[in-house]
Please model this.
Amino acid sequence: MAFDASFFALVALVLFFVLIAYLKVPGMMAKSLDERAGNIQAELDEAKRLREEAQALLAEYQQKRKEAEAEAANIVAAAEREAASLTAEAKQKTEEFVARRNALSEQKIKQAETDAIGSVRAAAVDLAVAAAEKVIAAKTDAATRNTLFADAVSQVKTRLN
Model:
């Protein structure tokens, strides 16, 4: 019988399969694949858990953001109300200040008018006295002047007592 290369190839192939079966390679491969499938499943479960946790955190932060926005809106509204009240108060105080200043100015103007009228009257009296003195001095003699002086002194004495 002549053994050709095909026969030896067949024998080598059979020996290879026997060696593989003897070493339990298919079992090891199945075990390795099962372990790998288990690891992949565990990673998928972990990823699912992490995704759910991330969604929960996202929902929590969105709620906190909404609360913070509402609080910020309340703060802005309160600040606007306070600014409006401060503006109104400042306007009222300014108007009161202006009214007081106007009243004070008017009072000073009236006082100045009174003082001016008094000064004018005093000047007019002084002028009238000076004119009367000149007229009397020109028209009277020494005896009349002495009599007028004595009357004036007596009137001053009676008014001072």
